[in-house]
Amino acid sequence: MEWMIHGHEWAAQILQKHITQNNVRHAYLLSGAPGIGRRSLAIRFAQALNCTQPPASGEACGECRLCKQIAKMQQADLTITRSLEDAHSIKVEQIRELQLNLSLAPYESKYRVAILLNFHEATPNAQNALLKTLEEAPTKVILVLTADSVENLLPTIVSRCEILRLRPLSIEACSSALQTHWQIPKEESIELAHLTAGKIGQAVYYHQTPEKLETMHQLVQDVFDLLGSSLAERFEYAEKITDTKKKNVYRESIQENLRIWLSLWRDFYICTSGSEMPLTFINFKSLSQKTAKKLTEPVVYQQLLQLENALQQLDVNLNGRLLVETILMDWSIVNH
User: Fold this and answer.
1) Taking the model in full, what pTM does it have?
2) Assign residue 192 a region: left if phi > 0, alpha if psi is -120 to 50, beta otherwise?
3) Tens digit of pLDDT for each residue in 185-208?
4) What does each C-alpha distance from 294 to 268, 290, 336 come to in angstroms?
5) CB-based contacts of 277: which residues, under 8 Å, 6+ apart?
6) Region 92-107: what's the mean pLDDT?
7) By C-alpha distance, which of 99, 100, 163, 109 is closest to 135?
8) Helix (H, G, I), strand (E, B), or coil: what is residue 51?
9) Alpha-carbon Rg of the chain, whole angstroms?
10) Closest CA to 330 of 294, 299, 288, 287
11) How far is CA 155 from CA 83, 185, 199, in A?
């Protein structure tokens, strides 16, 4: 089975070469934006390391029991460490539990593999706790960390890993790969490539969960509706999306809206400036162009700054309802 890592073939080749030459490092760091394919690459690497019927050195068959279990992230010698759903961070206790697991010999595989997803979410104490394992990794243990950016990890963590920095595909390459390897229709593949800025893992996710894509379409349409609405209607919308009764989704709901608003206002900026950069919401191009005609670059730029600041303020637990209402108050600048 080929690694099937589109756009990151160079990274797959490096990892395959390490296996082939029996020169596997004890720790790897896969960095790149969410949805770019970090987890997929880590899983393929784990399969190639422990496949029981490799078709060639450094490859995985994808069909043996271990390959199938690893693909489901449920194999005995594979440990997945990620943020707890209710905490949004990796705690030091999780690292302690991982270390106990890694101290055991592999049960049925050549290597014990630990994949630490989104390790930039680990607390400083958790990162420091992992240092001992990185410095004195047990034999037959491979650690694979994923993170959005190398800069968001402690330098002591980064210096002890082999770093592979993953980059998005071009819009054209992403669209082509979606059509060729996932048989996604051309029009949809173009939209997904634009929507994800070439992050193919995220594009495939949206294709496989059409309800998520439909929700995003509705949230974008909401912006155009809000731009032509009264202040009272905008405040009513703010109340709806910041419903504190839904505490488990409160913060995520606001973040999702702010990120979509930021991307759409970026599209407005591209339209007002006459830039050739690709739009994010290509299916709303005509509406974006129409709206942009009523705006100036300084006005759009100010909105972008406000949205970026709002996301940062939300991260430090400022009042989400107040943030949203403040943003929506300024949207009367667009007169329909």
Assistant:
1) 0.85
2) alpha
3) 999 999 999 999 999 989 999 999
4) 10, 7, 9
5) 270
6) 95
7) 99
8) coil
9) 23
10) 299
11) 21, 44, 26
